[in-house]
Specification:
It is built from nine helices and ten strands. The strands form two sheets. An eight-stranded parallel barrel has the order 3-4-5-6-7-8-9-10, surrounded by eight helices. Bound molecules: phosphoenolpyruvate and manganese (II) ion. Keywords: Transferase.
Length: about 260
Amino acid sequence: SCVVVGKDHDCQEVAIGDSSELAPVVIAGPCSVESRDQLLASAQSVKNAGAQMLRGGAFKPRTSPYQFQGLGIEGLKLLAEARQLTGLPVVTEVMEPAMVDVVAEYADMLQIGSRNMYNYPLLRAVGSHPLKRPVMLKRGLSATIDEWLLAAEYIVAAGNPNVVLCERGIRSYDSHTRNVLDVASVPVLKELTHLPVLIDPSHGTGFSRLVPVMARAGIAAGASGLMIEVHHNAAQALTDKNQALSPMQLQSIVEDTYAIHEVL
Ligand code: PEP
Ligand code: MN
């Protein structure tokens, strides 16, 4: 089975699925949309590096209410402009049912973040939305695989079968990594569901130096793609600066991704 992203806007269509015929999809971009200059430059450079989709948070689920919360609807408009510039379909997070309409209007794929995997009204809202935008459902901070699959069921049962899972690490006791990336969830999920699974080694490790190796591990485990955070000037990033890669580092991940897929 495969999920097609980008059907309703003027951009590339990208198929995400687990058939061995399909190349893995690399989604990349900044953690947050910070400004027009930052986003347009990032979008162009991730496209040049070989990414097929653009990510960027406009509504940010921050641990502290005093941290940058995202540009909101202004950020959505910038994402649409970046899509127009590059032809890359866009994925961005929606945090509340009341905002599903506006996020679905601008985005090609709706992201449900880790903190909202258990937000059943939000899952129903993205499931029943008439535009049936593909949904990327990230694993909850400490969700079991069964809980994660049941969260996906909420979306499907509400009427939207276009769900992609994203493993982004789970909480544990060790602070050498931000989260523990559960690479084994990929082969386990293949036994349990037809839904495609992506790996997010950026949130999964929390440190840029660990991202490339875990990206390779994810593809080797059979993931249908990757989601990677990229920033031009990581030291200045407003969010998640420790895990941001440069566009050059992204390019080498894209090359590795194709090379590994080739031998699977
Ligand atoms: C994100 O991908 O922007 C994000 C906030 O990740 P997570 O929900 O996995 O923490
Ligand atoms: Mn982030």
